[in-house]
């Protein structure tokens, strides 16, 4: 396919930018979207790009010059009559008000195109991921790192070293519209827009005062929430000076862990210890499937207060006071699991269903009209988001504790049986460590500081009106992750290895070195309160800690205007340039990072010679040090060329764009777009198509991740096993990912035979190449022996013992391919035609994922299908339907009903389902007895009542039927939920009051 010449585009963009910067300009912004329906587009007098109902009256544009132009987030073009080819869905402030969520993020993730987003109900099992409590958006299931999230078309400093933003840090009360661009938009907006763009657009000229006060809770009397928001705006000096400020506070208490056993939180009864039971190799050879989905699973490797797992005493558990008793294993015991039995020590239900969550945001904007045709402004934002949750109760040890027979805390009968039945004097014990006085709890805190200085406006050039906007941004984000009540592995092992001191008769730690370092013994056998001094030794007050400072500097300038009058209409152009610099530095505590104790944290983490000097001492949450930066220079140009305008052929136009990027790390990258729209002669029928190349440059984490070291074994080309160090580290040689994004759409917009009906159907196909993905050490060794020199540079396995290593880095080997169909529809009816009051609006959005294929790109591996995989993020169907009736009771009452639908799927598409005569399973294609998982429908109901022209009361009930989540089994006992797809919270009630005074 022919694409615009690179040198020509850059020269044009740079020369034009330099020549126009000094000219007088005029402020310009698009009017807001039609406030009636998810999917509405800004009203520019032309058919909307996505379904919309009949246009309601729009507020006045920000400046007089904005009256005839519109900025749509899928394009940089702002011109009269411009219709972009890229599919875009818009949600207005009215849509978010009807959703009545404490956080705008929770409304957005219900959109069918948004799949795989993270929030306060996801990653609650994680201690070390760094993304806990992060409200980040993902389109098409391609991941949060491949969705670009903007605020007023501007980049926002990342809240994580991967560069992804936290939507909870945005000033949400002033948002008047959110555009969700569901096609590739890198040519218009730059890197990361492979899945698309989500653009939050604020009301920059808000005048008056408005507030929102709300509260809520679940049916189970938990996850109580409160929201307080306020915004004020006023013009001074005949409107030349405008000041807008807002403040927001939201608190959601979360759903705490119920502790141990097969029990749900606060009366929830749906949890039943689901697990995938793995058969033996003999059973598989006889034709039995490898996996079977079982309920009420009991793990055989540990019990609540200790279980002997080998030898003649196997099955001896410990109860109150350390009393031994025979453990009840249950029935159908295969591998690690039985069905039924003593499930009091299971830990799966102990993960929080939702985090304790608090967000505080302060925002201000001051603008000054230098004259009627230009504006300068300053915006400032401070935001802090705090989370807290427990990933699991206790700290389960699955039969891997080597307990000596002379342990001082063993009951006498067990010690005697151990001495008689274990020749080496050691037996294996597993325990859930339910004696611990507190569960592990994780506390991430993210604080953003952002300042933007900018100008926008318009000017005349060669008899044409041109507009511009320019801004400079500095943003900082500090993330602190504090983990509490967690153990140090070596100290735990020293403390449980207790003996009696022959001189004093006191119970002490066996190791003299550990005793010298402060070791105090603990008793893990039975329901015995743990000694406080012992607890403070194994779980010091200062636990794992990570401190990350991220910064972003951006300078950007963009121009819009008409080049000339073509035979079918004006030829419009947008062009601009941008410079961006990203930087981060992360520091972990010495026990986790393994750095010298001469660090900022040395006083809080005193040196302990029994701990590993290389770090990784904690049970979980071993954070390491790292730092890095990159910069990128970009220039782009976009053209809209009308091709046809006639009564017989309709109207057609061509939209092309090119962006050239130069990264200090990844080198050159190029994004382009070629699209077309055709308003056919058929009443209301329009076609659109777009093909684009989109890019994602490697982020700071992928480039500069700090090194962590673990010991592993790999086989060389001769099949000999070699002990190596697995050194996990970033790869500064990574190149950008590139994607080919194709879409084709049919739009039916208010035809004469259905004036209030809109429909769009869009087919999309996205192929991502050079995907940044990591390899395991054996894969790297195999690739090196296969002749891949890039990988060989990360492998050294021919040296003396103790010197061999493999750098476990990310490489540009993998690929992704997703395709499917989006459907949007809307219909509005004036009920007066039927002798009734008010207006009824019907809306529907649905996405059908046909394929979501991930290919590791490594010899010996096979691509995997993610569409319909209910352990992932992409169900085959995801739909959002709503019906609202507004204007009841004399225009005071409005009611709304919403249905969220997820289609049925499978545990894993690569599993082969069979009950008998099964083929031998492989690593890529295991066999399973039943691979089916059901879908779900969630019904929400809400309403609002106008107490006066200024005050509205509202209510909302989410998950009205209190539908239980579908359990997704794992190969271990975990929470077994997928909150990225299913509702994990249950029925939720919310009420509130909104006030607007203008």
The portion of residues forming beta strands comes to 35-45%
Alpha-beta classification: mainly beta
CATH class categorisation of the largest domain: Mainly Beta
Helix content: under 10%
Low-confidence stretches: 1-69
Please state the overall shape, judged from the principal axes of the Cα atoms: globular
CATH topology type of the largest domain: Maltoporin, Chain A
| Main sheet characteristics | 22 strands, antiparallel, barrel
Ends: how far apart? 53 Å
Q: Give average pLDDT, whole number.
A: 88
Which radius of gyration do the C-alpha atoms yield? 31 Å
**Overall domain count:** 2
Number of helices: 14
Tell me which CATH architecture of the largest domain applies here.
Beta Barrel
The count of DSSP E runs of length 2 or more, i.e. the number of strands, is 47
CATH H level, superfamily name of the largest domain: TonB-dependent receptor, beta-barrel domain
Question: Any overview of this molecule?
Answer:
It is a single chain. The chain is built from 14 helices and 47 strands. It is mainly beta and 998 residues long. It has two domains: 81-258 and 352-392 and 441-484 and 544-588 and 625-698 and 734-774 and 809-997, Beta Barrel (Maltoporin, Chain A), CATH 2.40.170.20; 265-351 and 393-440 and 485-538, no CATH class. Strand 14 and strand 15 (337-339) form a beta hairpin.
Element layout with pairings:
Blueprint: H1 6-20, E1 88-92, H2 93-99, H3 104-108, E2 147-151, E3 175-181, H4 186-189, E4 196-202, E5 208-218, E6 225-236, E7 241-252, E8 275-278, H5 281-285, E9 291-294, E10 297-299, E11 307-308, E12 316-318, E13 324-326, E14 331-334, E15 337-339, E16 356-371, E17 374-388, E18 397-404, H6 412-421, E19 426-431, E20 441-461, E21 464-484, H7 489-496, E22 498-500, E23 507-509, H8 512-516, H9 532-538, E24 545-566, E25 569-588, H10 590-593, E26 626-646, E27 650-663, E28 667-679, E29 685-696, H11 700-704, E30 708-715, E31 721-728, E32 737-749, E33 757-774, H12 777-785, H13 789-792, E34 795-796, E35 805-808, E36 810-830, E37 839-855, E38 864-865, E39 877-887, H14 888-891, E40 893-902, E41 905-906, E42 912-913, E43 927-928, E44 932-933, E45 936-946, E46 951-958, E47 988-997
Parallel strand pairs: 2-4, 31-35, 42-43
Antiparallel strand pairs: 1-3, 3-4, 5-6, 5-47, 6-7, 7-16, 8-9, 10-15, 11-19, 12-13, 14-15, 16-17, 17-20, 18-19, 20-21, 21-24, 22-23, 24-25, 25-26, 26-27, 27-28, 28-29, 29-32, 30-31, 32-33, 33-36, 34-35, 36-37, 37-38, 37-39, 39-40, 40-45, 41-44, 45-46, 46-47
Biased composition (Low complexity): 48-66
Membrane topology: Multi-pass membrane protein
Signal peptide: 1-27
């Amino acid at each position: 396919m022919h694409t615009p010449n690179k040198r020509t585009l850059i020269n044009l963009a740079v020369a034009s930018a330099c020549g126009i910067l000094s000219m007088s300009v005029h402020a310009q912004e698009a009017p807001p979207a039609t406030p009636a329906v998810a999917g509405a587009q800004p009203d520019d007098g032309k058919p909307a790009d996505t379904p919309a109902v009949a246009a309601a009256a729009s507020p006045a544009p920000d400046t007089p010059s904005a009256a005839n132009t519109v900025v749509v987030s899928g394009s940089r073009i702002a011109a009269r009559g411009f219709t972009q080819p890229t599919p875009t869905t818009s949600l207005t402030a009215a849509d978010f008000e009807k959703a009545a969520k404490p956080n705008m993020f929770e409304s957005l993730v219900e959109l069918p195109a948004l799949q795989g987003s993270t929030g306060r109900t996801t990653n609650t099992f994680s201690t070390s991921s760094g993304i806990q409590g992060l409200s980040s958006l993902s389109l098409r299931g391609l991941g949060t790192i491949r969705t670009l999230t903007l605020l007023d078309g501007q980049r926002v400093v990342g809240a994580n070293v991967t560069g992804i933003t936290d939507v909870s840090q945005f000033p949400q009360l002033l948002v008047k519209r959110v555009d969700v661009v569901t096609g590739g938009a890198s040519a218009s907006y730059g890197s990361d827009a492979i899945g698309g763009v989500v653009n939050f657009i604020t009301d920059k000229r808000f005048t008056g005062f408005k507030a929102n006060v709300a509260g809520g809770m679940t049916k189970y009397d938990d996850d109580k929430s409160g929201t307080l928001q306020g915004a004020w705006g006023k013009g001074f000096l005949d409107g030349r000076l405008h000041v807008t400020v807002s403040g927001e506070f939201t608190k959601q208490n979360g759903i705490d862990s119920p502790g141990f056993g097969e029990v749900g939180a606060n009366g929830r009864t749906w949890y039943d210890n689901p697990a995938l039971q793995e058969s033996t190799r003999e059973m598989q050879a006889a034709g039995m499937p490898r996996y079977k989905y079982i309920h009420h699973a009991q793990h055989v490797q540990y019990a609540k207060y200790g279980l002997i797992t080998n030898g003649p005493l196997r099955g001896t558990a410990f109860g109150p006071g350390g009393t031994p008793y025979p453990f009840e294993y249950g029935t159908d015991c295969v591998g690690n699991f039985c069905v039924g039995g003593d499930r009091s020590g299971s830990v799966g239900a102990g993960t929080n269903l939702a985090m304790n969550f608090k967000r505080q945001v302060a925002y201000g904007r001051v603008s000054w009209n230098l004259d009627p045709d230009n504006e300068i402004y300053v915006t400032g934002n401070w935001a802090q988001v705090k989370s807290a949750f427990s990933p699991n109760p206790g700290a389960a040890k699955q039969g891997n504790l080597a307990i000596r027979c002379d342990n001082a805390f063993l009951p006498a009968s067990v010690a005697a049986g151990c001495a008689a039945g274990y020749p080496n004097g050691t037996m294996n014990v597993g325990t859930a460590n339910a004696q611990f006085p507190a569960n592990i709890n994780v506390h991430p805190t993210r604080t953003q500081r952002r300042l933007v200085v900018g100008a926008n406006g318009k000017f005349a050039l060669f008899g044409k009106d041109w507009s511009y906007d320019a801004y400079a941004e500095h943003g900082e984000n500090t993330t602190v992750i504090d983990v509490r009540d967690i153990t140090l592995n070596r100290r735990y092992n020293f403390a449980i290895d207790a003996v009696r001191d022959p001189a004093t008769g006191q119970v002490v730690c066996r190791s003299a070195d550990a005793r010298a370092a402060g070791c105090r013994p603990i008793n893990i056998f039975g329901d015995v309160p743990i000694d406080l001094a012992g607890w403070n030794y194994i779980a010091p007050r200062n636990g794992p800690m990570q401190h990350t400072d991220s910064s972003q500097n951006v300078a950007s300038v963009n121009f819009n205007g008409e080049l000339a009058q073509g035979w079918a209409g004006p030829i419009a152009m947008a062009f601009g340039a941008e410079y961006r610099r990203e930087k981060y530095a992360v520091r972990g505590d010495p026990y986790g990072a393994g750095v010298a104790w001469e660090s900022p944290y040395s006083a809080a983490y005193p040196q302990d010679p029994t701990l590993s000097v290389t770090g990784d001492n904690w049970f979980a949450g071993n954070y390491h040090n790292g730092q890095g930066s990159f910069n990128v220079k970009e220039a782009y140009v976009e053209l809209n060329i009308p091709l046809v305008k006639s009564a017989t052929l309709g109207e057609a136009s061509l939209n092309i764009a090119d962006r050239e990027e130069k990264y200090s790390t990844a080198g050159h990258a190029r994004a382009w777009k070629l699209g077309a729209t055709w308003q056919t002669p058929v009443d209301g029928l329009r076609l659109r198509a777009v093909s684009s190349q989109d890019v994602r440059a490697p982020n700071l984490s992928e480039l500069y991740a700090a090194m962590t070291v673990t010991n592993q074994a790999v086989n060389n080309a001769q099949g000999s096993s070699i002990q190596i160090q697995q050194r996990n580290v970033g790869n500064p040689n990574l190149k950008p990912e590139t994607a080919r994004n194709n879409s084709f759409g049919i739009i039916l917009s208010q035809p004469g035979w259905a004036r209030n009906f809109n429909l769009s159907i869009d087919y999309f196909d996205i192929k991502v190449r050079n995907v940044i993905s990591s390899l395991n050490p054996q894969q790297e060794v195999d690739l090196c022996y296969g002749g891949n020199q890039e990988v060989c540079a990360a492998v050294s396995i021919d040296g003396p013992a103790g010197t061999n290593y493999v750098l476990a880095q990310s490489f540009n080997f993998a690929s992704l391919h997703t395709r499917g169909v989006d459907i949007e529809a809307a219909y509005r009816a004036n009920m007066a035609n039927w002798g009734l009051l008010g207006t009824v609006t019907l809306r529907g959005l649905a996405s059908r994922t046909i394929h979501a294929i991930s290919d590791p790109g490594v010899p010996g591996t096979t691509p995997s299908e993610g569409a319909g995989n209910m352990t992932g993020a992409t169900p085959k169907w995801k739909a959002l339907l709503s019906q609202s009736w507004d204007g009841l009771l004399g225009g005071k009452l409005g009611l709304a009903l919403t249905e969220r639908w997820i289609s049925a799927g499978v545990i894993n598409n690569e599993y082969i389902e069979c009950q008998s005569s099964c083929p031998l399973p492989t690593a890529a294609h295991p066999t399973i007895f039943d691979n089916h998982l059901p879908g779900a429908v969630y019904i929400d109901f809400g309403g609002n009542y106008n107490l006066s022209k200024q005050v509205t009361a509202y209510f909302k009930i989410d998950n009205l039927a209190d539908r239980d989540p579908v359990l997704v089994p794992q190969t271990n006992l975990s929470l077994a939920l997928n909150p990225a797809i299913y509702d994990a919270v249950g029925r939720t009630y919310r009420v509130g009051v909104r006030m607007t005074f203008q």
